[in-house]
Specification:
Layout (H helix, E strand, L loop, with lengths): L1 E2 L5 E3 L5 E3 L3 E3 L5 E3 L3 E3 L4 E3 L3 E3 L5 E4 L8 E3 L7 E2 L4 E5 L5 E3 L11 E3 L1
Parallel strand pairs: 1-4, 2-5, 3-6, 4-7, 5-8, 6-9, 7-10, 8-11, 9-12, 10-13, 12-14
Length: about 110
Amino acid sequence: MTVTNAGTFTTADGADLTVGNAFVQNGAGVNLLGGNITSTNDGISFAKQVTLQGADAVVLTSGLGAGDNIVLGTNATTDVLGAGQALTLNSGLGNITVNGDVGGAGAARSTAM
């Protein structure tokens, strides 16, 4: 699934998304995540800032094979934000890459990898 967003891409709290192949966000807009995203056979990547929302942890799970990577951001300005929120990243045999800061002005409560 590819999301090419100019505005904010949003998943509501508890609105989980499961895709059969890669999940790719490549638009100019930012991301507001409340639901989990699972890719059953590939990786997950976000080109722009991710802000966490909701009552529970946001969980990103890529396919469990080698090369099923999770990539957050493309440079040092693409941060992961979300005051008091938690983020869990599960990549199986893949890599996890976070190119921006985790927290910043809106520090995340916890990050698990």
